[in-house]
Amino acid sequence: MFSNDSGLNPLTMAVDVGKGTQDVLYADKLDENVVKMVLPSPTRVVADKIRQVDGDLLCTGKTMGGGPVSKVIRNHVRSNDVVMVESAARTISDNLDFVRDMGITVIGSDEVGDYQSYTEIEFTDILLDEILRFLSSMQLKTPERIGVGVQDHGVAPEGMSDRRYRFSFYREVIEGEGRLEDLVFTEKTGRFSRIDSALEQLSSYEAVALDSKIAAIIGCYNGGKEVIIDAGNGHFMAASIKKGRLVGLFEHHTRMLDDDRITELVEKLIHGEITDDEVYGDGGHGAYSLESLEPDRITVTGPRRDVIPNTINYELAHPIGDVMMSGAVGIYRSFDLR
Q1: 85 - beta bridge partners?
Q2: pLDDT in the model for residue 38
Q3: Domains of the chain, with CATH numbers?
Q4: What's the confidence (pLDDT) of residue 158?
Q5: In sequence order, what are the residues at sequence separation of 6 or more whose Cβ sits closer than 8 angstroms to the Cβ of residue 137?
Q6: Over 70: is that where the pLDDT of 153 sits?
Q7: With 0-12 CB in 10 A as exposed, 13-18 as middle and 19+ as buried, what is 141?
Q8: DSSP secondary structure string, 165-208?
Q9: Name one Pfam family in it (predicted).
Q10: Which residues pair with 299 in a beta bridge?
């Protein structure tokens, strides 16, 4: 399916942005000898910068992953002024009234000049300048293509939960043709704020963006009939794929699943019996299965892969010999899917 895995491609950088790390792949073909980096995630880097600020804070830039950033902002606003441009404020919440209720001042980008006495921190999911400077210092060329994976719930309509909205997109894809390429974006979506921010930042490059969970699925897929499980620090996703077509999917929160529940949900996915209501009602995001699938293999990836019970007959992913590169390989492959 991915005919250019071993062939020569334009020089590509793939950045898989997670909560703890950003995993970077720099290559013109996929093999074990390519440049690979596991670096602190942008949300950790930006959060550390904010912790060092003693005084009033101005947050500019784009919508990025929250987590550590949101937590440190909540702490900072207790004793200092915090001003955020709208795009940065959406890192905290897409509901800007909620952000204002925290005591944060939300401004337009044309008002930044009014806060020159504040310490400015730029928000971004892609530490592009820093990575490119490092590559240059190693005498490596600027990539021709850049792809990025971020976890994006989407901007839910009023009255709909983020969990429901995120999974509604996957259901639409499965009910359609189930094409993996429909999960890869080259233009702004108007639906996913972090993906749109990434594509805007990469507008001068040939670029793709997709959800990081989907990137890991694509990075592990070998063709044929497979179930692929990505056990992340936050989200747990399992997908059933048949000849390149997504036919089933569920997403939950890793911390909420024990051995029995994981086994039960994976078996129901395989048999086409999993339901959206049972996963959502259990605290997960949702589920949808178009048909049953007897997999040739079950492949597991993700930083919490240790939670997968031995009752499931699985093999560990090792794309280009490195399980940490599952998402980055999926991003690299996504250029083939456009």
Answers
A1: 107
A2: 95
A3: 42-123 (3.40.50), 149-337 (3.30.420.40)
A4: 82
A5: none
A6: yes
A7: exposed
A8: HHHHHHHHHHHTT-BGGGG-BSS--SS-HHHHHHHHHTTTSEEE
A9: DUF1786
A10: 228, 315
Q: What is the pTM of this model?
A: 0.94
| Burial group, residue 159, by CB count within 10 angstroms (0-12, 13-18, 19+) | exposed
Which candidate, 154, 166, 157, 200, places its Cα nearest to that of 62?
A: 200
Alpha carbon distance 202, 105 (integer Å): 28
Mean pLDDT lowest among 118-127, 151-160, 287-296: 151-160
Cβ-Cβ contacts under 8 Å for 268 (sequence gap 6 or more):
274, 289
Give residue for tokens 């990836």. 301
